[in-house]
Amino acid sequence: MTTARVLTEAGARTVEAPLELIELSGDLVRVRLTASGVCHSDLHVAAGEWTAPLPMVLGHEGAGIVEAVGPDVSTLRPGDHVALSWYAQCGRCRQCRQGRAWLCTGTESTSHLLPDGRTSLSDAQGAPVHAFLGLGTFADATVVPESAAVAIPADVPAGVAALIGCAVTTGVGAVLNTARVRPGDSTVVIGCGGVGQAILLGLALVGADPIVAVDLSQERLEHARSLGATHLLRGDDPDLAAHVASITGGGADHAFEAIGRAETVALLPTLVGRGGQAVLVGMPAEGVRAGIDPFDLADAGKAVLGCNYGSSVPAVDFPRIARLYRSGSLPLDALIGVTRTLDDVDAALGDLRNAVGLRTILDLTA
Ligand SMILES: NC(=O)c1ccc[n+]([C@@H]2O[C@H](COP(=O)([O-])OP(=O)(O)OC[C@H]3O[C@@H](n4cnc5c(N)ncnc54)[C@H](O)[C@@H]3O)[C@@H](O)[C@H]2O)c1
Ligand SMILES: [Zn+2]
Ligand SMILES: [Zn+2]
Q1: Considering only CA atoms, which residue is closest to atom 17 of ligand 1?
Q2: What region holds the Enoyl reductase (ER) domain (predicted)?
Q3: Which ligand has the nearest atom to the CA of 233?
Q4: Mean pLDDT over residues 272-293, rounded?
Q5: Which CATH architecture describes the domain 2-165+331-363?
Q6: Domain-by-domain residue ranges, the chain?
Q7: Which of 87, 174, 199, 324 lies at a CB distance of 3.0 to 4.6 Å from 329, suitable for a disulfide?
């Protein structure tokens, strides 16, 4: 059994419900959840910007403690502390075999199902309930395939472990894996929410310079400075591209979009200098299209890169990030805002919509 917040209709409040967890078999793992972040991807579904099968338990940025494992599980034992991956790789497809777990074509996570096509959750009448991206962390327990649960040291706080499950791995991975930023490269980040802040920490880690942060919220900009941004610009600055060009000496080597808006996606290549790259991390509402200037891309040798999950392999990158946190190189506590209980999740989604505060952590042990 798990107590969960269930979304039954886009745009409506979630409702609390007791749900049945699927019985363990094969490589399934039952995790007692300790913390969940609230990410804009949850909001995309809650607001109806992404279609999803309802009813659904949202939440995909979570951590917990393994409670029980199926007979085929080999890497985890009860009591292990885990961060959850929202992209459980199949391990068999061409992308997985090439080491690109973040592009797996065999995953059922994006259908919000277990690898065998069943839902992990059902209601009191036995009707299926979907778990967002196969996780459904707005609950006190979940059942996931082994490849979605990665052991991390028990001394990493639950809230930090939860953020490693999405925003941190996405943002730090965008810098280290997708863009491969080098010390001294010039950079700009548009959108300094949870994911953008993790990008900033990644840029500070590798010694990018300058690091230009762009947001509409003064609070977010001030926070960006404390995370290592060297210059702050407003997203509604009509001369944004000119200001970035003057700070970076002709345009950034790497520009990151971490919002998912057509306007800022279209703007991104204009912030990049000759031979630079525009990295798309934000994910727009379904159907959004953004214009580009092909002549400029060709003439200036600019690249546009898509970035799913920070081009990360969770089994490799979660422990790597945990080590960087423990050594003090990635001060991830600085990303955490208020802590709320599970029944406050709608308020947390409201804060996210209004860009109020930092990342909310749900304390699922409360
Ligand atoms: N690529 C991936 O694998 C991946 C993973 C996680 C999240 N995402 C996506 O990343 C995006 C960001 O997620 P988040 O949780 O950080 O969201 P968030 O709501 O915490 O942050 C968005 C930020 O953008 C700012 N913003 C909005 N409009 C702006 C503008 N015109 N100019 C400048 N700043 C502006 C807001 O003030 C806010 O600080 C979402 O689309 C989410 O779905 C992608
Ligand atoms: Zn997320
Ligand atoms: Zn695969």
Answers
A1: 40
A2: 11-362
A3: 1
A4: 97
A5: Alpha-Beta Complex (3.90)
A6: 2-165+331-363, 171-308
A7: 324
